[in-house]
Design brief:
mainly alpha, two-stranded antiparallel sheet, 6 helices, elongated
Length: 177
């Protein structure tokens, strides 16, 4: 009985090589981290508009944050309408933060050069928001939230460093501003 040799499948187009141009440009840890923050800010921004809304399969009821804000508004003797204004304002700011990060990600995926000031401003806005969240957690007396905001800020700053180094290495950021 003779053994039949089966040829191995080695078609180059079907096997993605890690060092190929498109693969190495798109599949980077920096792009993954920036994509995470784009999704984070988009979903958190949209969430502020969906509090107490039932959309069928997607229902969002963030009772703890809403209850804390209601208690704060009542303690501060502010009109309850300020609660909706605060939530919508926070949601709009978070959506605004997501947009420049989305542009940073898009430039990276397409291998396009970007201004350093724009890149830094994109991350600066998110950092300022986390500092704002920390302040809100202090005002509301929410120590667990303060820890969470602090951890998110640290991870966000690490993402900035990772992305900056990666984009500089790939020549996507101007060298000096």
């Amino acid at each position: 009985m003779a053994l039949v040799e089966v040829p191995h499948f080695t078609h180059a187009a079907a096997i993605a090589k890690p060092n190929s141009g498109a693969f190495s440009r798109v599949c980077t840890l920096a792009n993954l981290a920036v994509a995470y923050w784009v999704i984070f800010w988009l979903m958190n921004g949209v969430e502020e508009f969906l509090i107490r809304q039932d959309l069928g399969t997607f229902a969002r009821y963030d009772q703890s944050r809403t209850e804390q804000l209601v208690a704060f508004v009542m303690r501060a003797d502010l009109p309850v309408a300020w609660l909706d204004l605060l939530l919508v304002g926070m949601g709009a700011i978070q959506l605004v933060i997501a947009l420049p990060l989305l542009l940073v990600l898009t430039h990276s995926l397409k291998g396009r050069w970007m201004k350093r000031k724009f890149f830094e401003m994109s991350f600066f806005l998110g950092g300022v928001m986390f500092v704002g969240f920390s302040g809100l957690d202090i005002i509301l007396g929410e120590s667990a939230g303060l820890w969470g905001s602090g951890v998110f800020l640290i991870v966000f700053l690490l993402t900035y460093k990772l992305a900056k180094d990666s984009f500089e290495e790939r020549g996507l950021l101007e060298t000096n501003s």
